[in-house]
Amino acid sequence: MPRRYDPERRQRIIDAAIRVVGAKGIAGLSHRTAAAEADVPLGSTTYHFKTLDELLVAALRQANEGFAKIVAGRGALEDPRTDLAAELAAWVGEWLAGDRTGVELEYELYLAALRRPALRPVAAEWAEGLAELLSRRTDPVTARALVAVVDGICLQVLLTGVPYDEAYAREVLGRVVAGARE
């Protein structure tokens, strides 16, 4: 049987991996489960992703894009008159209001980086990218503190099931920003 050209196959495998992790957790992901979910031959998953870690890295990179799209879509951070804490709290609210599975997946993949060193650089990209973006409006230490607070708030919302409280987030983030000015 001749080989079919399928330029979307790699992307379908990544999407399938995200769905598998969303439904079964990282422990449920294998080349076999990704292939079945993507409806591709098992050999396709191992052709595009030699190891499961490579597939997880691709999935985490794609998951990271969700928050980046929100940040890029709003664009208000470039305006120095924009309340930094309010804008960041709104970003988080928009992110958490979207597909919660994607946010959960992202955090599950971050935590997997504790045991899978191949994921660590990708897990760090999100925090570093956001800190770099925030550094345009504040100093690097405050930017990293803001990222840590955002991470903490998101984890609390995900783990407790308590609805996101944008006013609370704005207040806490505002305190970090104000502390940098003192």
The share of residues in extended strands comes to under 5%
pLDDT < 50 runs, ≥5 residues: none
Helix/strand/pairing category:
mainly alpha
Series of secondary-structure elements, N-terminal to C-terminal? HHHHHHHHH
> Radius of gyration, rounded?
19 Å
Termini separation comes to 71 Å
Pfam families: TetR_C_31
InterPro entries: Homeodomain-like_sf (IPR009057), HTH-type_TetR-like_transc_reg (IPR050109), HTH_TetR (IPR001647), Tet_transcr_reg_TetR-rel_C_sf (IPR036271), TetR_C_31 (IPR041583)
Protein name: TetR family transcriptional regulator
Keywords: DNA-binding
Can you put this structure into words, describing what you see?
InterPro entries: Homeodomain-like_sf, HTH-type_TetR-like_transc_reg, HTH_TetR, Tet_transcr_reg_TetR-rel_C_sf, TetR_C_31. With 182 residues, this protein is mainly alpha-helical. It contains 9 helices and no strands. It has helices at residues 9-24, 31-38, 42-48, 52-74, 84-97, 100-112, 120-134, 140-160, 166-181. The longest helix has 23 residues, at 52-74. The radius of gyration is 19 Å and the shape is elongated.
Question: Which characteristics define this entry?
Answer:
elongated; single chain; 182 residues; 0% strand; mainly alpha; 9 helices
What is the gist of this entry?
This protein has 182 residues and is an all-alpha fold.
